[in-house]
Structure formats: C-alpha cells, structure tokens
Amino acid sequence: MSFDYSLDFKNIDFRQHPELYRVGKGEQGVLLVEPYKSEILPYWRFKTPDIAKNSSEKIYSLFLAYLEQDDFVGADMARKFIQMGYTRSRRYANHKSGRKYKQTSPETGDKKEILPYVVDPVKAESAAIFKAKWIEAKTNAKYLQLLAKHKQMYEID
Fold first, then answer.
1. Considering the domain boundaries, does residue 43 fall inside one?
2. Residue 3 lies in a domain
3. In sequence order, which residues have a C-beta less than 8 Å from that of residue 138 and are 6 or more positions away?
C-alpha cells in the first residue's frame, strides 16, 4: 500500500495511531510523521564526514531504541532519515548546488535538463557513511520482523 498523503499529519500522533502509518517507498513521509520527525530531525546533518558520522550514529541509536520498544513506526522513520542522509549528501556530492536539474524556462517545455556532475569528495564520504548505516538499518533482523508484522496487520489491500 502506498504512502497516504491525504492524512491530517498536523493532528495525528503516529505513536498513538500506528495503524494509520504506511511505509510507502523510500523516504516518503519522512518530514510529515510526528512525533518522530521532531524527535529525529534535530540530529540530521551531513555537511562534513565528521558531522555525518555523528548524525548517522545518533539516528541509528534512536532506530535501535525504537526497535527495543517494538515501535516500528519510529524505527522506520529513523531508517528513512538515515536513507535521506545518504541521498541528500549524494546529491550534494554530485551537484554543488544540491539541485539535480537545471531551471527551465517556459520555452523549453517540461523537458528537465540534468546539471553536470561535479563530484565533491567530502560530500561523497558523508554519503558513504550514511549509506553504511542505512544498509545496517534496513537489513536489521528485528526491523524486518516488525516491518512484516506491520504490513500484515495494517497494510492489507
């Protein structure tokens, strides 16, 4: 089942209502689902490898704490923030501005032009740090168990 963007995210506490949470794909909902967004976002940073290491380790420790409490939604949100640390730092590693596509004018239509790659080795190292933690999180045995249980209980089509 896909992520449900129609929910009233400003007024739903997903810790109290995990049945409303849908995993979706990738990072869907990472900046919407409370109270987890507010708990995790302050630690999400990737500017340098040292900052990325501290950030990914702190978020991974939150991930493990959520798992210890059998809080799948919290664990999945932490996993999404770690994944987003990877994808965003990778984007900045490839494109200095952080933008993948060139701004287009109305004359060019909807055709998106990808900006040239200029690899930033510092951001690439930050991305590698987050990627390692992301793989560790998404392959964690308890996470996979809780994911299957959540889908079985709440995401039946």
1. yes
2. no
3. 79, 83
Site of tokens 């939604």: 73
- Residue 109's CB is within 10 A of a number of other CB atoms, namely 8
Query: 95-149: per-residue pLDDT in tens?
Result: 765 666 666 666 656 667 776 677 878 899 999 999 999 999 999 999 999 999 9
Alpha-carbon gap, residue 33 to 7, rounded angstroms: 10
Q: Angle 50-52-53 (CA atoms, 0-180°, nearest 5)?
A: 65
Q: Which of 90, 88, 87, 75 is nearest to 124 (CA)?
A: 90
To the question of pTM greater than 0.85 for the whole model, the response is yes
**44 inside domain:** yes
| pLDDT tens track for 23-51 | 999 999 999 999 999 999 999 999 999 99
Q: Give the total number of structural domains in the chain.
A: 1
Cβ burial, residue 74 (10 Å; 0-12/13-18/19+): buried
Phi/psi for 5 (5° steps) reads: -80, -5
Which DSSP string corresponds to 89-126?
HHHHHH-TTS-SEE---GGGTT--EEPPP---HHHHHH
